[in-house]
Amino acid sequence: MDVVRYLVDVVRVNIHKVDPYGRSPKDIAAFFGYKETLRILENAKEEKRKTSKPARSDSSKSDSSSENSENAANDEELPK
Predict the structure, then answer these.
(1) Do residues 20 and 59 lie in contact, with contact meaning Cβ atoms separated by under 8 Å?
(2) pTM > 0.70: yes or no
(3) Which residues have a Cβ under 8 Å from the Cβ of 18 and sit 6 or more positions away?
(4) What angle (nearest 5°) sits at the alpha carbon of residue 36, between those of residues 45 and 12?
(5) Are 25 and 40 in contact (CB under 8 A)?
């Protein structure tokens, strides 16, 4: 279990990434009955919610919207 904790806590692997068959690490842990691994993954998901970054302020959104309008203008200039 130390390896799982290391990957989740230190390396911060994406625990939501799925394999080519659509299975997440949590799905695979549940399928094989790895209860401790499943618990670690579920706790990591809860921890991420608690420590997620706050939403951007309105001033930063206005900057990105001006960039989007500039990109839209550039798209219109491209030959078809």
Answers:
(1) no
(2) no
(3) 24
(4) 40
(5) no
CB atoms within 10 A of CB 8: 20
Residue 70 carries which side chain, given as an amino acid letter? E
| 49: containing domain | 1-54
Distance between CA atoms of residues 33 and 26, nearest Å = 10
Q: Is 69 exposed, middle or buried (0-12, 13-18, 19+ CB in 10 A)?
A: exposed
Residue 17's contacts (CB-CB under 8 Å, 6 or more residues apart) are: 24, 25
Write the pLDDT tens digit of every residue in 38-71. 999 999 877 766 665 555 555 545 454 444 544 4
* Section 29-33 average pLDDT: 97
For residues 41 and 1, is the Cβ–Cβ distance under 8 A? no
Query: Domain count of the chain?
Result: 1
